[in-house]
Design goal:
The protein is α+β, with helices and mostly antiparallel strands. It has 2 domains: 62 residues, Up-down Bundle (Single alpha-helices involved in coiled-coils or other helix-helix interfaces), CATH 1.20.5; 54 residues, no CATH class. Strands 1-2-3 form a 3-stranded antiparallel sheet, with no helix packed on it. Helix 1 packs antiparallel against helix 2. The longest helix is centred in the first third of the chain and has 25 residues. The chain is flat. The termini are far apart. Bound molecules: zinc ion. Zinc ion binds next to loops.
Length: 126
């Protein structure tokens, strides 16, 4: 028997998974102060759903996950955020759970040539 494929159904399931991930991360964020263990449970569940259904975690949450222990981080509660300049400008995030550092580089775009020609704000005047 040939197995039928339902692309519409798959998209619908992914949409539901995305909504559930969003809800779970929101709950985890709310519970962070009062019950960190429950918050971590929510975050783990959301991550497992994302991995199983091949759905991207929203960027505002994926940037706040420890790459070593996968815990949802919040500055002041379970992580420490510092700006460092050496060797290159970066944000150093220290996870208090696994006591490891994460580094996020700050990239600067070099401005070369005549910028005013490409500036979109100057187009309206002429
Ligand atoms: Zn960690």
């Amino acid at each position: 028997m040939v197995k039928k494929k339902y692309p519409q159904r798959k998209a619908y399931i992914k949409e539901i998974a995305g909504r559930r991930i969003e809800n779970l991360y929101q709950l985890a964020d709310e519970q962070m102060n009062s019950d960190p263990v429950l918050a971590q449970k929510y975050a783990t569940l959301a991550r497992n759903i994302a991995l199983r259904m091949n759905v991207k975690i929203p960027e505002r949450y994926s940037k706040r996950i420890c790459i070593h222990c996968k815990q949802l981080l919040r500055p002041g509660i379970n992580c420490r955020v510092r700006i460092r300049s050496k060797p290159t400008p970066h944000v150093a995030i220290f996870c208090k759970n696994c006591r490891k550092f994460m580094r996020k580089n700050l990239k600067y775009k070099k401005v070369t040539g005549n910028v005013t020609k490409e500036n979109p704000f100057h187009e309206g005047k002429n």
